[in-house]
Design brief:
This protein is an alpha+beta fold and 374 residues long. The protein is 36% helix and 29% strand. The chain is built from 11 helices and 15 strands. The chain has helices at 2-8, 13-21, 57-66, 71-92, 107-122, 152-157, 175-185, 243-255, 286-297, 344-354, 358-373, and strands spanning 28-36, 39-47, 133-135, 139-142, 145-148, 163-165, 196-205, 216-224, 230-238, 260-267, 273-282, 303-308, 313-321, 324-333, 336-342. A 4-stranded antiparallel beta sheet has the order 10-11-9-12, covered by helices on one side. Strand 10 (260-267) and strand 11 form a beta hairpin. The mean pLDDT is 91.
Length: 374
């Protein structure tokens, strides 16, 4: 389904087939249009001569390393198979390098994983985001007999990642699919997709008929907004911390590279005075910043929301004054300067060293900058 969705979204099939041919495994890929709940999708079928080879992770690693694959595709494929080997090793109680793949070692699974990685590379994807994968219930037949759904290997692949539970009574996420998504995203599954300019969409069709959802995997390709414009606001209410602790928490957040941090006085239930501790952080820093807040304040929960921001272009220049150099932070929009401000730390140091008033240093630094613009 992943391979089919990427092909429908624009990954060139011939390019994928050319690279897969260098694996030296006889196989054929066919694509078939499919309607699922009124949606035009694509179904991929991999056919090959009957084989009963049970390959180890080392065997598959050698196949991939010897093949002529794009570097990024080879890295993603090896990452997926390594994750599978680790998961199977935990399930069966043996080292990953000793794991023998059965279903996953078959030709169709190898083609699925490697082909999807080549397809992702061919559309020029720089980043991948994916929502929590769907978990179902029931049983499925495997080489070892009947196993519960989700499969034990699937759960091990997704250990540490967010998942969602559905009402389906058949397998909705396979070990192969889980390993692919984990390799593409490092296991970071998020509810919200990033803001983007949409370029193409692809739908991969599954063969089973689900009761509660269309059996589709959707790929959306687009140009993601500048990540510097996307931030997360995290906050928590605290009513039992001293001023010293609150000030220290704000300092710790800034030391942890929060974009900004502050306190807001609030009233909680029963009219209790309290403070809301707030911080703007990069999306990737939400979990670490929230953990810091809870550890330092004893709060049992932290709220956050992701938002866009408009950011001016910034540059730093230095001006020479009779008593030293002072940095100036300059802001501009569309290439035109609209504000300039001396760096306070520089102004304060020059004021101390020269025994001159801080305001005078500030004025003279701005005047020196304006003179530079003439």
């Amino acid at each position: 389904m992943t391979l089919a969705a990427l092909i429908q979204a624009g990954a060139p099939l011939q390019n994928i087939q050319n690279h897969l041919g260098t694996l030296k495994i006889p196989h054929e890929i066919t694509t078939t249009p499919s309607q699922v709940s009124g949606t035009q999708a694509l179904q991929v079928t991999v056919t090959h001569p009957d084989q009963h080879a049970h390959r180890t992770f080392g065997d598959i690693q050698t196949l991939i390393q010897k093949a002529d694959l794009p570097k990024g595709a080879a890295e993603h494929a090896l990452k997926a198979f390594r994750r599978l080997a680790e998961a199977e090793g935990l399930v069966h109680g043996r080292p990953p390098e000793d794991v023998t793949f059965h279903e996953v070692g078959a030709v169709d699974s190898i083609v699925d994983i490697v082909g999807s990685c080549v397809a992702l590379e061919s559309i020029g994807a720089k980043t991948v985001s994916c929502g929590p994968l769907p978990m179902a219930s029931g049983v499925v037949s495997a080489s070892h007999g009947l196993i519960p759904v989700p499969g034990p290997a699937t759960l091990e692949v997704l250990r540490g990642s967010r998942v969602r539970w559905t009402e389906e009574c058949r397998e909705t996420t396979t070990p192969t699919g889980a390993a692919l998504m984990h390799a593409f995203t490092d296991g970071e599954f998020t509810e919200a997709a990033p803001s983007m300019t949409l370029r193409s969409v692809g739908y991969g069709a599954g063969r089973a008929e689900l009761e509660h959802a269309p059996n589709l995997l959707r790929v959306v390709v687009g140009e993601v907004e500048d990540t510097a414009k996307m931030v997360a606001l995290i906050e928590t209410n605290v009513d039992d911390a001293s001023g010293e602790i609150l000030g220290s928490v704000v300092d710790r957040l800034m030391e942890a590279e929060a974009l900004d941090a502050w306190l807001e006085p609030i009233f909680m239930k029963k009219g209790r005075g309290a403070y809301k501790i707030c911080a703007l952080v990069e999306e990737s820093a939400v979990e670490d910043s929230a953990s810091l807040l809870m550890r330092e304040t004893g709060s049992l929960g932290v709220r956050y929301r992701v938002m866009s921001r408009v950011v001016a272009e910034r540059r730093f220049v230095e001006v020479d004054l009779p008593y030293g150099r002072c940095g100036i932070k300059v802001g501009s929009l569309n290439g035109k300067d609209f504000t300039a401000a001396p760096e306070h730390a520089d102004v304060a140091k020059l004021a101390r060293d020269s025994s001159l008033p801080l305001q005078r240093i500030h004025r003279e630094a701005l005047a020196a900058f304006e003179k530079m613009q003439d």
